[in-house]
Amino acid sequence: MAADSGKLKEVRLRAPVDPAALGELRIGEVVYLDGVVYTAREGVYKKVVEEGCDLPLDLAALSNVNFHCSPAATVNDDGGYTMGAVSATASFRFSKWIERWFDISGAKMIIGKGGMSAADYRRCFVPRGAVYLTTVGYGTGALLGRGVKRVREVHWIRELGIAHALWVLEVEKFGPFIVESDVEGNSLFDRENAKIAKGLPDLYRDSKPAILGRYGETDDRSDEVI
Amino acid sequence: MIPIKTVEEVAENLMERAAIDIPEDYLGGLEEMAEREEGELASFVIRAMIENYRAASDDRRAMCGDTGVPRWYVKMGNEAAVEDGPVGLEGALRRATAQATAAVPLRPNRVHPLWRTDHGNNVGINAPEIEYAYEPDGAWIDLTAVHKGGLFGTDYRMLFPGDGIDGIRRFLIDSLVAFGRRGLACQPAIIGIGLGGSKDICMVLGKQAACLRIVGDRNPDPRIAELELELTELGNSIGMGAMGFAGNSMVIDCHIEAGYCHTGAMPMSVHAFCLASRRATARIQPDGSVCLRTDPQWFTPYKRRETVEWQPTAEN
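YS: structure for the whole thing
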């Protein structure tokens, strides 16, 4: 059973994703995926982008969907894998690697937690026709775990550990995800932040800054800490 | 004498229960919130989470892929004795943590801060944390497993008496707005606030308030209880909901714990026990019998005592 998306539009896509289909996605839409996705986060990015290691597989031929994720999984004695829950990790931390990663991997869809900055969308995503999907709630680990039908292959598990290894996953009705950034670089989080920011002056109206300030402190509540 | 084998078995079971079964008090609070939330996106998120808990229990699969940082709270009655002593107890908790990591499975999350060494079992230097408390009567031991998120949503600030209750309100909003955007705090959360103590105790009390008191529980000091309700409402009036979407679902409940502090100070810490509020408790008796529950019953009149000598009648 999928979560009832109510008034939100729900879309089901094949992975690897068709670039033309990405053009149809709008921020705030709910997406489910079927096909093949892979995980890569700072462990893989450092190895490939910084250290120049070759990818251990032909990633571009396999999928263009990069999930910022590490599964709760176990390597069994027979060499197989038990996949438990699957949740995303916060993507804004990967900003320094993402542009080169796009060029090396050919990724068109990033799935993660919390999105990236509007500047990253403009600089790296829009020119490559790529979109960003966010996981829901952070996370629907059990629902996403259910959506993983098979672990096709795992790379660098010994060097990077379970959390940072590159997992290739066959998925079915994998989701829910929400479109955070579309091909034009619009950001759902930016839109929602702007709505919330309107109410903040009222919230702080009768409140004074703390007696002891902190280095780098700002009084502009439209600022983010990330 | 409490058998050490039972301690280890129960501990492994608690790791599994904490990871998979959302406590009823939190679920009840979230279901009430789902009724009230009017933001379309925030409401979708909450409904998806409720469905996720059901999937976790049905599949016996962890509710969240991020195990957080598993930790232990141990409480002993004054007459309790564990076979193999305190060292045996800590060994059993470390073994249970490692075994459950493979068996559930949980994500191995614990690494060395510099060398990123990962034993693949959530055990390492000072990990899992084990905290202790004692009660005047009883020969039992209570074990509580908590899988607490380990990245965002927590802050500390040295406030002063001159900052007053307004300063407390402001620092809470600061924390919620900062970490609530994009849902980094994985709200709606149980917010724990530590007030007073020295810096370390302020953090410890706030985390315990978030993780070890159930939704609906109120501080026995009526004025603090009132402040807990006020701050819950304040957090839900920011205009922000689940995942930082427009809405009003930030705080499932707010718990405040106080500790006596420096006469010039009023330090405060804020902690968020997230959408995966994972805790499970068991009491083990000397005869090896076990009683499971979800309320850790950590804060008792004895834990909150004020005077030099324990005076149960005066403080109850």
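YS: worth flagging: The first helix of chain B runs from residue 4 to 20.
IM: good catch. Also The mean pLDDT of chain B is 96.
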